[in-house]
Amino acid sequence: MQRSAQQIERISRWREAFRDDTTGIHKTVQDLLWNYAAFRTTVRIVRLANERREARPPLNQMLFNLISEGYWSSLLLGTRRLLDKAPLNGPKGVYSIRSVVKDVETSREWLTRRIYVEKVLDAQYDLDRLSREQHEKLTAAKGGVIWGDPELMKSEAAHRHFDTLSGVSHLARSPDDLVDPAIFTRIEARLAALDGIAVHVSTHVAHAGNKESRLNKLLDDFDVRDAQKTLKQLKEVADLTGVWFANEGGTGLTTYIGDQFQGLDQPVVQKADITDLAEQWRVIDREVANWSIDPAGL
Fold first, then answer.
1. Which one, out of 40, 109, 135, 168, has a CA that is 20 to 30 A from the CA of 9?
2. In 149-296, which residue ranges form alpha helices assigned H by DSSP?
3. Residue-wise pLDDT tens digits, 147-156
């Protein structure tokens, strides 16, 4: 009984890793996708203006640099979070694709087909019984219309997922089937292909690496096309592992409640406001100049 309770708790952690609305996997992926779309929109604004050869720049260079640097930092940090190699559980646990997959792999010996179908995907195991009951209902209806049994569809889907995970044909299913270790190897290979980003972040963004620690860890010519490929890879793996191990559907670009383009057709500031902004800049300059301390004040 205690072992069963521990297994249920472990499975609930897999789901929690995807569902947590603060640092969960789906939340991280959704944020990355939204920021990607917003940044692509910003780049498009500049490109459209350049095509019209407008005399006035469409976006102040200072603001564009701020947006650009913020975007790339958030993309790289978000990618690193999803690839984090720390464990899922414990005081230093993390919600990452890798932490969930590693925890599932550790649980492989007890994660049988029956436990997977019933506990991970919340479906009924006995597919033959459900099929028989559905057939009996159809026969009793004598050609009339009846509702399909959703439990039958859930069970069919759950068994199909485990057929893929175990590499066992639907004709040879057994309650004691286990996940094929090759599944974990293939997932890790896809994640490892992005590890160069995590290494770069650790030495250039998250930590102020010195010359030695930064050596050969720079992302050369990483642009928006690389961002697209990275996000595609992360979303695909996150969606699939979420369906497999957390009974979670995939995520996509968030639907904005309102108009995300509102205000873009208006100038950011009026010409008369530039004087005010210039004065504020001078105030900040003087303020920063006074941020100093002498030995006596230490």
1. 168
2. 150-166, 181-192, 195-204, 211-214, 224-246, 274-289
3. 777 899 999 9
